[in-house]
User: Fold this.
Amino acid sequence: MMNDGSNAEVASLTRAACEAMDAADPIAALRDAFLVPERTIYLDGNSLGAMPKVALERAMKVTGREWGSDLISSWNTAGWFDMPTRLGDKVGRLTGADDGEVVVCDSTGVNLFKLVWAAATLRPERSTIILEGSNFPTNNYIAQGIAASSGGRVVVRFVEADDIMAAIDIDTVAVCMTHVHYKYGHVHDMAAITAKAHAMGALAIWDLCHSAGAMPITLNACGVDFAVGCTYKYLNGGPGAPAFLFAARRHHAMVQQPVAGWWGHAEPFAFERDYRAHDGIKQFLVGTPPVLSMAVAEVGLDIQLAADAQQLRVKSMALTDLFIRLVEARCGRHGLALASPRNAAERGSQVSFAHPQGYPIMRALIDAGVIGDFRAPDIMRFGFAALYVRFIDVWDAVDRLDDILETGRWQRPEFLSRDAVT
Ligand SMILES: *Cc1c(COP(=O)(O)O)cnc(C)c1O
Assistant:
């Protein structure tokens, strides 16, 4: 519960006060780089980041000139061939990795498959992969798929957040953690869990889908072995943009990944009969990159690189704090229960509230121009991308939420039927 002091403080908050916060925001101008439709309050950048304005120009250039006019020569002349590593190095700068430790390729799930399997080859005498069972299910499915096809060699163990540290033991191949939980938004202690894994001789694999671009990340300072993440959430790479894969340099010589394709070969254009892995990060590549997606994704990475990660985190914590306080003060009586950590330091850039009627309420909110999303069974999820969300957006979103709850407008029949993508 909030104490009296903060209640009084929230009661005195006004829209004008939020406007003043925007006026004082040192990174407010970053929003200008994005296209956010006029009446839309976009609180879903944790699912699909907003479009950088220059993405349109870049998409025109990569199709019109590079593909349309220059055709195949663009592999060399427009830097297409180097895209996986060039973008990878940019992601590396955003996540505390060195040049040559990250590639951009494939999807998060496919990259996780390569890394979990690779981890198992590095720890042949061990069998257990530990995951947080309530985490984004594709990570579980990938690990289960490896276990199912391993003939008993690999087993999966699901553990919940509080029990992770104790679960890591001398049979652990790797602990595979999502840095920020997709549904509840809690942040795991990357340094502590990685250190515990290493103390037990295990490896640490991190999924940065909900933290890359949302908070400072220090992969090498934490001693992380492997990591994956997507570029279309807080990195604003565009729908279906490829994911990234990090492998610490100390593993490059020893590791073996299961999907040997020509792009991972030491000399792809030697067209040798037999596979010979590249000795660097390129060994994790498989095939031809999705050039159009990569070109657009690079624009998002460049914007992120020009911003200050610390300032983004400070603003993100202030936005999410404000949202929690306003929702609780103004809509609390309608039965919304905070499902994310109250302490900003323990939370990613998202806030979740549980409500038994979360689905129709979210549909009504979207209808009112406030885009969040819903995660079964009862979670209303709101993402706050500090690059383009303003303090007045928080105010207006809560205003519209309050109106929907107060009038009961969410009970209209059109809000009750489920869409395919929630
Ligand atoms: C978004 C997300 C993914 C996405 O996986 P794809 O294979 O790229 O579709 C995976 N894991 C987590 C934790 C995510 O949040």
Remarks:
- Confidence is low (pLDDT under 50) at residues 1-5.
